[in-house]
Amino acid sequence: MSYHVEHLHSVQAVDDAVNREGESGRLVVVRFGRGGDDGCARLDAALAAAAERIGPVAALYAVDIDEARGFNVMYELHGPCTLMDDIDWAAYYSGGGFAGLVQAVHERAKAGRLLVIVD
């Protein structure tokens, strides 16, 4: 099976994807931002580089905050690119570190952990 970063274009598409993946047991990784932003482009490249490695355990999605505006207030999406707080994503842009992080979170979540701290 081939894995990739799927672009979602509406709030309903995001909700449907989260619900579908929730039933499958895979993690859901969503990049909110503006595709034309340089930081978002680098993060999208990291997600794409990691897609094959983490595809079996995580679904990767990109959402343009100008298309799916319903999340902007709810998640306080004001910057050009948001994936998760408190992580230095620059360290993971090669794809390998990011893939390892996602796999570690998936393993701990399957073991019943609701909070995963990776240092």
From TrEMBL:
| SMART domains with a match to the protein in the record | DIM1
Pfam families xref list:
DIM1
Give me the Gene Ontology terms describing cellular component: spliceosomal complex; U4/U6 x U5 tri-snRNP complex; U5 snRNP
Q: Where is the signal peptide?
A: none
Q: Name one GO biological process term.
A: mRNA splicing, via spliceosome
Question: What family, per the record?
Answer: Belongs to the DIM1 family.
Write down what this protein is called: Uncharacterized protein
Q: Which organism is it from?
A: Panicum hallii var. hallii
High-level lineage: Eukaryota, Viridiplantae, Streptophyta, Embryophyta, Tracheophyta
